[in-house]
Amino acid sequence: MIKLTVFTMASALSLACGAPALAQAIPPASIAGSPAEGEWVKLSEKEAELRRDVNRLHTDHARDMSKLAEIAATKDRALSRSADARQSYERLLASPPPTGHAEMADRWAKKLAESADDWALHERKHEDGAKKWRKAEERESKSASALRKAQDRLDKAVRERTALEQRALMARR
């Protein structure tokens, strides 16, 4: 009964202090005082470390997903601007060059060249965005894979700790 009270008080204190890991470091009554207590503490510490890893990986993955969305939006804007620049270039190209005044023909040629440069610039931006997007997609995929693996390790640790508690409970009966 005393151990249960200490466990409950320690749990309440650790939760009040914002340290839930302390509550898990104190074995339940079925384990306390048994030969499995040391193994239970080790498994609990391993589980707490795995939980920290999973939380960190969740944060990393969320950041990677955010970056991927940002790059995709930039890439899409560049594609839209490229299409607009191409249409502008094609309209200028389709219109006949002014005749009669050399100055007007020069302005038209200059506008045509600027339009072509603008189109090429936005095409390059789109291609650069596509490259960044592929890299970000790979990074996101790797972080998702690492997160799944860490979650699997955590689930296994929880199952091991739970099995130990069940064995200790059965041994006490």
TrEMBL record:
Keywords: Signal
Basic and acidic residues bias locations: 119-142, 149-158
PROSITE patterns tied to this protein: PROKAR_LIPOPROTEIN
Region called Disordered, residue ranges: 119-158
UniProt signal peptide: 1-25
Name of the protein in its database record: Chromosome segregation ATPase
Organism placement in taxonomy: Bacteria, Pseudomonadati, Pseudomonadota, Alphaproteobacteria, Sphingomonadales
